[in-house]
Write a structure and sequence with these properties.
The chain has 398 residues and is α/β, with parallel strands linked by helices. The protein has 11 helices and 18 strands. The protein binds flavin-adenine dinucleotide. Residues 15-21, 38-41, 47-49, 51, 112, 133-134, 162-164, 168, 188, 293-295, 301, 306-307, 310 line the site of flavin-adenine dinucleotide.
């Protein structure tokens, strides 16, 4: 443990201004570390769709910057009910979202872009560098130099790869190739909120064999549709218009509001992508470089944990840099705290992705109890409690 309050690193370069990179920069700057974020995009644009933030992720964000969760709540929507329907619109069941009662925080659905904006607004504007596409780095005992496509280089004490599922930093560090396509394609967008389609504070999940659609209220007069379908072909459309025609074609037999919602959407707002993950790694940190978020542990969205585990990473990395006496020990402890937990959630998410497309089944009591134990372990993660660092109890392993 540390005996002095002087940070063990002075300057940190973070690659990627997604939720992970921005949250980490906030956490490190709170400690007086000169953290800068380098993002390949030339501007922040209103892109992305709805993201669900759960109690584990929200608690970590709140510990990183008290008050930020309240700001997010003012922008997004706190989910109170979940409705399950068929693709023809018949309601199968409606139930109260158990999150608040069980874990003390409701699920918060928010537009990815607003999440990015709110996190970015917590940082001085001169520490976010747009049009900085990382293409390489080299390290020695004293520093790490990062190279960017615009010809610039940056020297730092630590480089954090928070550059998403197709991470350049990971490719250079580990070189494990392309992410794994898990067999389903996704299309998502944000449109104007329509109360007749989606009651306030509700999430709707519609399903049929091989495809599902979510409707989320993301607040501030917007809602998000997310459509996924099991498809062997993961090729991306070559234009926005082509992507829109494709999703309309794939969901042609769905009930009217779904087709109508897709038809109303500006093609440039439709985000098309293959659902991918990677196999868990055994090590994330090498010398002066480490990984975080989707760059470290990309997972399918089935358990809604991508952004949430990323906020856990940001909190734990900052804590390790604060509490351990040198960089090597801090990063070893960061790996130790994060790899086992995220590997389990990655595996669970991959299994759950396939279950989405199977007919609803009655689960037996034993399996139900196992699932409940697992969810308690996942959502109970709390920066205020030392028990979050315990290894996974046998009873919980799925
Ligand atoms: C544009 C975008 C929209 C998304 N929308 C949604 C959504 O609507 N719903 C949802 O659930 N999840 C969404 N995600 C994924 C979700 O945000 C992540 O799974 C999760 O939050 C983990 O965040 P992250 O910061 O680790 O990675 P990401 O959110 O993927 O962010 C990575 C960032 O790194 C940047 N980057 C990548 N390579 C480089 C490079 N070489 N140099 C510099 N910068 C680089 C990317 O442009 C991006 O801003 C989106 C991701 C992106 C990039």
């Amino acid at each position: 443990m540390r005996e002095t309050s002087k940070p063990i690193v002075e300057k940190v370069a973070i690659i990627g201004a997604g939720p992970g990179g921005l949250a980490t920069a906030i956490a490190l700057r709170e400690q007086g570390i000169d953290a800068h974020v380098y993002e390949k995009a030339r501007e922040f644009r209103p892109i992305g769709a709805g993201v669900g933030l759960h109690p584990n992720g929200l608690r970590c964000l709140d510990a990183i910057k008290p008050g930020i969760v309240d700001t997010l709540k003012c922008s997004g929507c706190q989910v109170q009910r979940v409705t399950l329907k068929t693709s023809t619109g018949e309601t199968i069941t409606t139930y109260e979202n158990p999150m608040m009662k069980k874990y003390g925080e409701a699920t918060l659905t928010i537009w990815w872009w607003r999440l990015q904006q709110i996190l970015a607004s917590e940082l001085p504007s001169d520490v976010i560098h747009l049009n900085y596409h990382c293409i390489g780095f080299e390290q020695n005992e004293n520093s790490i130099i990062t190279h960017f496509e615009n010809g610039k280089t940056v020297a730092a004490d630590l480089l954090i790869g928070a550059d998403g599922v197709n991470s350049t930093v990971r490719e250079i560090l580990i070189g494990d190739g392309q992410p794994r396509y898990v067999g389903s394609m996704s299309w998502r967008a944000v449109v104007n909120y329509q109360e007749e389609l989606l009651p306030d504070n509700e999430v709707i999940l519609m399903k049929e064999e091989k495809s599902i659609v979510f409707l989320l209220n993301v607040g501030e007069g917007n809602m998000s549709w997310l459509a996924r379908k099991l498809l062997p072909d993961s090729t991306l459309s070559s234009t926005f218009a082509e992507a829109k025609s494709r999703v309309l074609r794939e969901f042609a037999n769905w009930m009217e509001p779904v087709r109508e919602l897709i038809a109303q959407t500006d093609p440039e707002r439709i985000l098309e992508g293959p659902i991918c993950d990677r196999l868990p790694l055994k090590q994330w940190s090498y010398g002066r470089v480490t990984l975080l978020g989707d760059a470290a542990h990309p997972m399918t969205p089935a358990a809604g944990q991508g952004a949430n585990t990323t906020f856990e990473d940001a909190y734990e990395l900052a804590e390790c840099l604060r509490n351990f006496p040198d960089l090597q020990t801090a990063l070893a402890n960061y790996d130790n705290r994060r790899i086992q937990r995220t590997a389990i959630i990655q595996t669970h998410s991959a299994e759950r992705e396939q279950l989405y497309y199977q007919p609803l089944q009655q689960t037996n009591q034993q399996l139900q109890q196992k699932r409940e134990n697992f969810e308690n372990w996942m959502y109970d993660y709390d920066p205020k409690s030392e028990s979050r660092l315990r290894y996974l109890p046998e009873t919980v392993a799925l």
